[in-house]
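The passage that follows is intended for readers who have already worked through the single-chain material. We present the inputs for a multi-component assembly, then the predicted structure in tokenized form, and finally a short commentary. You are encouraged to pause after the input and sketch how you expect the pieces to fit together before reading on.
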Amino acid sequence: MKYNSVFDIIGPVMIGPSSSHTAGAARIGKAARNLFGQEPTWAKIHLYESFAKTYKGHGTDFALVGGLLGYEADDKRISKSLETAKERNITVEFIEDSAAVNHPNTARLIIGNASGSLELVGISIGGGKVEITELNGFDLRLSGNHPAILIMHNDRFGAIASVTRILAKYEINIGHMEVNRKDVGKEALMVIEVDQNVEDAVLKELESADHIVRIAKIDS
Amino acid sequence: MFRTVKELVELAETEGIQLSEVMIRQEMDVKNKSREEIYEEMEKNLQVMEKAIEDALEGVQSVTGLTGGDAVLIQKYMKEKNPLSGNLMLDAVSKAMGTNEVNAAMGTICATPTAGSAGCVPGALFAVKEQLNPTREQMIRFLFTAGAFGFVVANNAFISGAAGGCQAEVGSAGAMAAAAIVEMAGGTPQQSSDAFAMTLKNMLGLVCDPVAGLVEVPCVKRNAAGSSLAIVSADMALAGVTSRIPCDEVIGAMYRIGKQMPSSLRETGEGGLADTPTGRLLKEKIFGMSV
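Having made your guess, compare it with the prediction:
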């Protein structure tokens, strides 16, 4: 089931005007920032279908950027986020993309700074709820109903075991897990859905595990 | 966990509890939280709704100037004249529109189930409140009942205009309000289900065609329709009128109709009212570009 809580329906509390185009967009931006792990200095944002046609009217542009700045959907600073980004010297470019997509409210965010970049596709499925469907070229199937840990790692033996050993030590149960790689021995992604939110201490330890490149978590 | 309205109603009937109670127990179970924690979270939403209505009745205006002030106009009319549709009905209309005026003015609202349709449920709630004099707990329960029905729609169809048109937004929101009014007024779970079905049936096919892509025209006034239809449907159900087509089948019909809608009528701002001479002119004025 896509929605599992009554507060997905009655809620979220948010700044208007649109739950999918404003609140959802802010959450996609925030997810990108969290996964990138730092503030980007530039962002190229591709918008598709309904997002592309109405982003100005709905404030999708400032909501996405607000998310990139780290704001939540009910943060009153959201409406000024484009100006704030400019003040902080973050270059933002919006591209109305006519490519075919599976969901009418789709955004592709490519963000980065001097030390690296990240590409993420998010969809806003209604009522402020979002799904992240792609990360750095990897397809994701996250239900969003449970906290998740995303682990970019090098495709080497022992990488997965080193992660699961740490989770086991902290008695964190895995509900769903996927491993994907670009090619043998190349960049790979572990997606782990767990039953409880993961403490920062656990993340720190995971980061220092064998063959791990970068870690991010998504709270449910 | 219930997946359909039929299952929701059956759970309430077998246990001899209200629909709101089914939703509350499920939420406690899924989130592993206490009743107090869940009540508290819903109380916060209720306060946001209350505050939005207060703000609206003092008068708000959107940045574009397209919407705002109508909630105040209606309240004034209610005081000075004798409204044909009655005070309770117009109060709901005024508060539903007001909530959406606040939304359009980028104020703080609670999405129910979306921002564009955020007026229907609170509009109906704060109008029937004047007649039914509910306790605070009953008002919180109203939101759980509305949420239970929205939960079924969201999981079996859609609640966003971009996915399924305005029938998915204001249609769902009005229907959720109708079901919740029935429970607050002392009706049965089945009557809630009938009220929901009768509201949504009358919203089927409603397209999402926002002028200039803004959540203003016609969204604010469609919230008036959603909340008033909710009250009418609740009264019909309480009178014993039933829906010939079962509630879940109405939701299924809404889903299939939404799937058949062209994208021009699903929140792209390209068809319907957005594509009228005046709609196009307004867009040009606001954004300085032609459609």
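Commentary: Chain B touches chain A through 60 residues (CB under 8 Å). The first helix of chain B runs from residue 5 to 15. How closely did your sketch match?
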